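quick one, two chains, predict together pls
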Amino acid sequence: MVGVSRMPDSTVVNFENVSHRFGPTRVLEDVSFHVHDKDATCIIGPNGGGKTTLLRLLLGLIQPTKGKIEVFGQTPRRSRQRIGYVPQAIQYDPLFPINALEIVLMGRLNRLRMGRYSPACKEVARHALEEVGLSDAAGRPFAALSGGQRQRVLIARALATEPDLLLMDEPTASVDLTVEAQFLETLEKLIGKVTILLVSHDLDVVRRLTDSVLCVNHTVHRHALADLTGETLAEIYSGEHRKEHERKTLHAQGDHSHCKHE
Amino acid sequence: MNEFFQALADPNVDFIRNALIAGLISSISFGIVGSYVVARRISYIAAAIAHSILGGIGAALFLRYRVGWEWCSPLGGAVVAALVSAVVIGLVSLRKEEREDTVIGAIWATGMAVGLICIHFTPNIPGKNLESYIFGNILYTSRSDLYLTAVLATIVVVVSLLFYNKLLAVCFDEEFARLRGVNVPFYFLLLLCLIGLSVVLLVRLTGIILAIALIVLPAATASHFSKRLSVVMVIAVGLSMIFTAGGLAFSFPTQTPTGPVIVITAAATYVLSLLAPKLRNGTKAK
């Protein structure tokens, strides 16, 4: 692990009045929330609601138009090394000549010695593959893995970074139910050990992992899972509500009265 | 074929030995760099760099034979042009503000145009120089070309092996590499510069127009036999050496142009490697 959090109040992620726009489009508006050390939090919300933007801000890949973001008490860019990021497997070139272990080893890229991975790094990578139940597949080409296995390789890669914060973008979006069950087992073992932030559309996944969700739809609100009634979910996901939301966003520019679920 | 081996053994005929040694040495770098190019799917960038270096060759010929700068060598000009166009294309590709394919096409043609104009205003180029740069003529390989080849090939091999893990990561997943603290723009530009230098090695062998074939085809063939980049590289190096030596051995006694013979052999092997598994499956199915 890369040292202990310096924040006295155990806040790992802190967003303060963060807004982000792409050109004229406001993606996130005056967003404030924080995540505590070792918490597991799920992020839900409609497509186009700003979930991916939120993750990219957290990783320091883009800068907010307004507001302040702190991760482990520092800028996201400086804290990057402590974040294990799991993107969606679907975006990779399936023909790329690489095997599972080589991908997982990328989690140790910042520890190369003379351009080579040390035996200790290889051990960490093998252990990470074991954690996701893929020890047998270490030498298998990426092309020969199923969608679910590819996703688990990416999770192993994030684990190989020995992260203090694990950030996952819809890790179960392209996997079948058996794999999802395995994945949840893996993840449950990590709860309480690292801070977890997971984007998911799958309410079963959300329910298994946490009792607290962040709803991202241009604004961000925290909900207790028990409060997520059908009505609230409809509000988050339904097209009608989203249209209404966008209309209000465009016209009122910062008027928050349209978010009834607070 | 016998004639080829006799010429190789003849101590008075050193050009054929130079050609073979240059071809074998530079095969090591095509195999390695070509594997990156195929895996990262940037053969169009490699092709643009290859064509644009005619600008550097033309400028060097102009400066040498028209202006009288004796120290200007065409291959030196090619090195400069290859590095410049690699960096320009790389920066455009990284910025993503301008349409990448447009800029690549423009550099491709502009480089050639500059070269052709320079050569037009340099009437007294000795020998069949222009054609030999465009289509290659490995039998023109001089001893100093041989040294340059050895130096360039060493640079390409050492750099691409030393940074293998980082280049692999940048090719497979730029974003993750960046998150792990890898300077992605630097390594992408480095890779394009290595491509540029490899293309320069190919100027004598196949000429700039056919260069892309020998960068891409051995690696593409090799990728049918392995799904690990390091193994693909080893196979691609072996194939490049066989194509180069075989092409030379065939073209010398038959008086056929070497570059095209090498390229056609490489292309035929690629097609075979593409069809072989399908044919085998086809017979199994019956």
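The CA atoms of residues 52 and 175 of chain A lie 20 Å apart.
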